[in-house]
Amino acid sequence: MSDAHKKLAGRLAILAVGLAAPFLFPAYQSQMAELWLFVVFALTWDLAGGQMGYNSFGNVVFLGIGMYACVLTQVGLLYDIGIYNGARGGGSATFVFDLPHYLEGLALGLPVGALLAALAAAVLGAFVLGMRGHYFAICTLGLGVAAGEVANSWEWIGAGSGMVPPTPPQVIGDLSRFYYYFAFALAAVTFLVLGWLYRTRFGLAINAIRDDEDKAEAMGLQTTRIKVAAWVIAAVFLGVSGGILGNLKRFIDPIDTAFSGATFGVWMVLMAILGGKGTLWGPVIGAVLFEVIKEATWTYLLGWQRVALGLLIVIIVVFFPQGILGWLRERFPDRFGRRVEADLSGTAEETAR
Amino acid sequence: MTAILKVAGVSKAFGGVQANRNVSLEVEAGRIVGLIGPNGSGKTTLFSSIVGYHPIDEGSIRFEGQEISRLRVVDIARLGLIRTFQQTRIYGGMTCVENMLISSSQRDARLLDLFQARSPEREERAGDLLDFVGLYPKRKLEAGSLSFGQQKLLEFAMALMNQPKMLMLDEPTAGINPTLINGLIDRLKRANEQFGITLFVIEHNMRVIMNLAEHIYCLAHGELLADGRPEEVQNDPRVLDAYLGAH
Amino acid sequence: MLDNLLILVQAPTITVDLVLNGILVGAIFALAAYGMALVWGVMNIINIAQGEFVMLGGYVAVIMSAHGVHPLLAVPVAAVLLFGLGWLLYRTVIFRIVERDLFTSILATFGISIVLQQLMNTVFGGDVQVAQAHLGTLLLMGGMVTLAQIKLLSFALAAVLAVVLVLFLRRSRLGQAIRATAQNARAARVLGIDTDRVYAATFGLNAALCGACGALVAMAYTVHPYIGLPYTIRSFMIVIVAGLGNLAGVIAAGLSLGAAENVAGFVLGTQYQLAFVFLLLVVVLVWRNWRLARKRQYLK
C-alpha cells in the first residue's frame, strides 16, 4: 500500500468509528460529543497558539459568542427573547419548537454564531494582535473574563441565571446522539480545513511569525493581517462549536458554560500542549487523551478534579512542554519527514565547492 | 545613472546620544556601495532608519523617488528594499526550503495569495538559490540547527528569494569562516550582476569592502566623514584618523 | 448610567466618598503590583498566581479571626506563611522555569493559580468571607462621606509595608543582592551572588507581601476563592502603566486605579465593576501598543 492509500484507509477507519460510536457506546454519547468539540477547541487554539506563537487565554470569547448567538437566533426566530429569558425558558408548554422550526433555527443559528464570532475576532484581533507575546496572552485573559462578566450582567440574554436553549421536539429523539453527529462533522471539517491551511503558504507565514515576527515583517509579510486572519479562522469553528455545545448542554451559564475561562479556556491550552503544539495531530491526540483522563478520574477525584487539572498544567508546562508528538518527533525525526543530516545527493557543482 | 536611494540630512538621536547627524548619501541603481566606520559610528542606526525601525528626527529618505521616512517596516520591504540583520535572523523552527518559500516577494501579494497551494516554480527557484549559496544539501534541515555562518548564507538566500530592488546587508561576513569569505564576495557580486540587485553593505572587514564596493561612505561619530572610490577612501587621512582614534 | 453620572455632578460629596474609598483600596493594589514588578524585574517572570497569594493571605486572616484571634495579627502571620509558600513554590516549580521564556512562566504560574484557587474552593467552599476587625466608621463632611476605620488602618499599614520594603531593598545585604541581580544576573553571579537564593528570596518576599495585602483585604473588604485573577490583572495593569522599578509610578497608578474602579462601579453599576477592570486592562494594553507603533518602534 502506498502512503496515500494508507492515509486514506486511516481516515476512512476514523470516519467509520466516528459514525458508529453512538451505537457502539450509547451510554457515553454526550461525552463523545464533548470529545469532538474538545478536538475543535484544541485544534483552533493551536492555530494561533502553536502554529503562530500567539498563546491566547481568551478563545472562550468566540466560543461564548457563538453559543449565545446561535441560541438567541433559534429563540428569536419564534419568540421575543426578552420575554423568553424573563420566563427562564418558561417550560416547554409556553415556548414550543416544532421540528421544521427547530431545524430552521439551528440551520440559521450555527452560521450566525460563526459569523459573529469571526466578526469579534476580526475587531478584537485588529486591536490586540498588534501586541507581542506575553502582552497578548494576558490581554486575552482579560478579554475572556470581561466577556463573561458582561454576559453575567446582561438581563436580555438571561444574565447570571443563564439561558435555556430551545426545547427540542420529541421527534428528534436522543438529543445527545443528534448533536454528537454535529460535533463529529465539525471536528472532521475543522481538521481537514486546518490540514489544508497548514499546507498552503499561509501555514508557512504563521510559522514564520512564530519563529521571528520582526524578520517576517522585514521580509514584507503583512503580519497583522495574517494574524487577524488566523484568529478569524479559529473563531469561525469555535463559534459553531459554541452553538453545538450550548444545545448539547441544554443550559447556558454565562461563566461556567459560555465564557468558561476556568474550564474550557484552560483545557484548550492544556490539550494542545499535551498533544504537542504546532502540529496537526497533536491537539487531536491531546484532546482525546484529556477527555479520557478527565472522565476516567472524575469519580475518584470528586471535588479535587479541578485542583488536579491545575497540577497537570504545571507538570506538563514545566516537565513536558514539547508534548507527545513533539517528543516523538525528537525521538524519531525520520518518521516525521524531518531530517537531521545533510542530504548529500546535492548537485555535483555543490559538492565540488 | 539615477540614485535608487537618496538620504538627505538625516539626524537621529536616542535620548542624549546623537547617533546620526545630518547624514546625506546616495546609492546609484545597480551598483554596490559600502558603508564603513568605526564601532558606534551610527552605521546600523542609519540602516534601521532607512528600513523603518524608528522615526528620524530630521531629513528625508527617498527610495526610487518616494519618501519612505514615515513608512513602516512592512511597507518599505514591500517596495523592494530589504535588509539583513547583523545578528542573523532566520525562521529557526522551519526547514531551509520552507524559509525560502515564505521569503518570496510580497511586493504585489495580497492576503488571499497566501492561500494558494505551493507552486513548483517557486520551489525550483528556492532550490536554485539554496544551491547558489551552497546550502542545497541541507535544504531539508531545520534552519535553527545550522551553524551561524550557514544561517547567514541562508538569510542572504532568503533576501535574494524576495527579489528586492535593493538589498542592505549588515556585516555579511562577520562570523563567517575566513576561507569562505572569498566565495561570499563572489556571490554578492554575482547577485549584483545577474539579478541586478543594488547592494548597500556595512562591513568591518576592509579587505572585503575594498574588493566589493564601487563607492564607499565612511561614518564617524554619526557624521559623514568621507566618500569616494575605495582607494580614495582608503588613503583619506581623515578615515585613517577615525579608525585609529587620533581625534 | 447617565443618571448616575448626573448624581456625581450634583452631589460632589458622593464623588469624594467614592474617590477616597477607592484610594484606600488602591494602596493594596499598589503593594501587590510592586511585588509583581519585583518578581518580573528580578526573575523575568510574570506571576499570574499573584492574586491567589493575596487570596490565601485573606484566608489566613479569616481562619484566625474565626478562632478568636484578632485579624490584625494575621498580617504578620500571613506574611510569614506566604513567604514559606513562595519559597517552596520556587524550590519545586519556579526554579525550573526561571531561565525559560516569559510565556512558560505565565502558563506555569497560571496552573499554580488554578491549583490554589480550586484548593481553597474545595476546602472552604465558594462563599464570601470576612475577617471582622470590629472597628467603627468615620463620618466626614457632615456624614456624607463615610470611611471605615479599618480601611484607613489598612491604608496606613500598606504604606508602612511599602516603606519597610523599600528600606529593606536599599539597606540590607539581601536587598542589595536582589537589586544587583535585577540589573544583571550574570554579572551578579560573577561577583559571587548566589542568584538562585536571591530568586527564592524574591519570590518568597513577593508572596509575603501579597499575603499581608490579603490579610488587609479580608479585614477591610471580603475574600472568596476567585478574587485572585482580578488582583493579578490589576497588578499587571499597574506595572504596565508605571513601568518596572518605578515605585512612585506604581503608587500613583495603584491609587488612581482604586479610585477609577470605585467611580466606574457607581456609574455603571457594581455588577459591571469587574468587567470594567478587565476591559480597562485591554484598553491600557491597546493604548500602550498604539503608542509604540506610532513611534515605529517594533524592535524589542
Automatic annotation (TrEMBL), chain A:
Principal location listed in the UniProt entry: membrane
Ordered alphabetically, the record's keywords are:
Cell membrane, Membrane, Transmembrane, Transmembrane helix
Subcellular location per the Swiss-Prot or TrEMBL entry: Cell membrane
Q: How does it sit in the membrane?
A: Multi-pass membrane protein
Q: Does the keyword Protein biosynthesis apply?
A: no
Q: Which CDD domains match?
A: TM_PBP1_LivM_like
Name by which UniProt lists this protein? Amino acid/amide ABC transporter membrane protein 2, HAAT family
Q: Which organism is it from?
A: Tistlia consotensis USBA 355
Lineage from the top down?
A: Bacteria, Pseudomonadati, Pseudomonadota, Alphaproteobacteria, Rhodospirillales
UniProtKB/TrEMBL annotation, chain B:
Q: Is Repeat one of the keywords?
A: no
| SUPFAM superfamilies, alphabetized | P-loop containing nucleoside triphosphate hydrolases
User: What UniProt keywords apply to this chain's record, in alphabetical order?
Assistant: ATP-binding, Nucleotide-binding, Transport
Q: Which Gene3D superfamilies match?
A: P-loop containing nucleotide triphosphate hydrolases (3.40.50.300)
| Residues in ABC transporter domain copies | 5-246
Highest taxon, organism lineage: Bacteria
One GO cellular component term noted in the UniProt record for this chain: plasma membrane
Q: Which InterPro entries match?
A: AAA+_ATPase (IPR003593), ABC_AA/LPS_Transport (IPR051120), ABC_transporter-like_ATP-bd (IPR003439), ABC_transporter-like_CS (IPR017871), BCA_ABC_TP_C (IPR032823), P-loop_NTPase (IPR027417)
GO function terms (MF aspect): ATP binding; ATP hydrolysis activity
Query: What's the protein here called?
Result: Branched-chain amino acid transport system ATP-binding protein
Q: Does ATP-binding show up as a keyword for this record? A: yes
Organism annotation: Tistlia consotensis USBA 355
Automatic annotation (TrEMBL), chain C:
Q: What is its main location?
A: membrane
The Gene Ontology biological process annotation of the record reads:
amino acid transport
Q: Where would you find this protein in the cell?
A: Cell membrane
The terms under GO molecular function for this entry are: transmembrane transporter activity
- Asked if the record carries the keyword Cytoplasm, the reply is no
Q: Which residues cross the membrane?
A: 20-41, 48-66, 72-90, 102-120, 140-169, 236-260, 272-290
The record gives the membrane topology as: Multi-pass membrane protein
Give the UniProt family note: Belongs to the binding-protein-dependent transport system permease family. LivHM subfamily.
* Protein name, UniProt field: Amino acid/amide ABC transporter membrane protein 1, HAAT family
Species per Swiss-Prot/TrEMBL record: Tistlia consotensis USBA 355
